[in-house]
Amino acid sequence: MENSKLVSLPVTLKGGENYLLWARTTKAVLCGRGAWKHIEPQPQGDKPLSEAAETKRYQEDQAVLAILQSSLDVSVLEAYSYCEEAKELWDTLKNVFGNITNLTRVFEVKRAINNLAQEDMEFNKFFGKFRSLWAELEMLRPATLEASILNERREQDKVFALLMVLNPAYNDLIKHILRSDKLPSLDEVCAQIQKEQGSLGLLGVKGGEVVMANKAEHKVEHGFSNKSNYRSYGDRSSIICDHCKKPGHSKDRCYFLHPHLRPTSNSGPNKWRDRRGPPRAQIAAGERQEQVSTTLRQNDGEAAALAASSEFVRKADLDALIKSLKESGNSITSYSYQASSSFNPNQLVKASKPLIVDSGASHHMISDAKLMSNLKPALGDVVIANGDRIPIKGIGDLRLFNKDSKALYMPSFTSNLLSVKRTTSDLNCYAIFGPNDVYFQDIETSEML
Description:
A four-stranded mixed beta sheet has the order 1-2-6-7, with no helix packed on it. By secondary structure, the protein is α/β, with parallel strands linked by helices. α2 (51-70) runs parallel beside α4 (86-97). It has 15 helices and twelve strands. Helix content is 41%, strand content 12%. The protein has helices at residues 19-32, 51-70, 74-80, 86-97, 103-115, 123-140, 147-164, 171-178, 186-199, 207-222, 301-307, 315-327, 332-339, 345-350, 420-427; strands at residues 281-283, 311-313, 355-358, 364-366, 372-377, 381-384, 389-391, 394-400, 403-409, 416-419, 429-433, 438-442. The longest helix is centred in the first third of the chain and has 20 residues, at 51-70. Among the domains are: 18-41 and 51-98; 104-115 and 140-203, no CATH class; 355-442, Cathepsin D, subunit A, domain 1.
């Protein structure tokens, strides 16, 4: 342990959600350096250690303790810094975060496995999450051949399956049930749900109305081909964020992931704002139904998924941007070419309208058909701030740095809008804004595109 000060553990313990990964990697590091004996000491018999041996043992134990403490998150370290020996700290963390009787954690892991979806995630990263969840579940539920334990787990799985599909209005009841040392039977849980449903009327919402409202919301959500663009502006109290676990918003509106959406100081918990200023283009399927009416009829599945939305555009913002570019001494064509040098220069020369990099647009909106290929017809419109509707004429491919990106064909637009969100997502790159230029940098190779 002479070089113990150079040891750094690969995983930082933040709580119960990553305890299994932390414990396994930490054990591997300590075993590799011959320090595991301080976590699981071997019996020494009745022979006492000499003063020099005891001093050396204490020194090595403190070195292992320092290694463990350096791998703890600040909040965890503050809570358990009182532990004076490595074994004491290890056992304490195991009792707190590795409790195999923690029904709440078992439920959370099973729900996470049930809701896990690859979507656009790379397979290796997705499989890592998948395997990590199963490994934690196996730790919480070790393999056994005892019939009583197997029957108990089968009954628990029935209860867990029911709790996963309950209306969010029963979240408080679910937490109360999972706090128990022993999970109630399915019949007992059903009885508690019936009681809770009757008491929901005291909060101003009847149980039947809650269930029907949930069914209606579920039905409307599945009516849109692009579910990620659907947001309900009704009662947000029943929405739970998958990232921060706080009510009132969904993951795509979480200001921990999107700081510009942080609520203002004088707004309520369910009011959100965009700090980037008024959005120039916002995809908002079903977002404000009293203002937006989307009538897309497209048989092509891929085209429908992209075009099934209405968008808000402030024409004043576009005019102001064009004016500011002219005043700065840079022509719009020059700015467009620097911002999107992936296009063929001949295409840019032939383009009759400027190309503008828009950080507020969710999709590319191109008015020059020369910049697009594989153009397919599509129906729909974009509602701008003054209430006018600008029609969507089609959907096609926009060539960006030797890659195709889907774009909306909007011939009535005065400019070609290049979405920063769509570009960085499709090309897996960063968008770097300078005073007069915009550059795109590949995330994997760090090369400028």
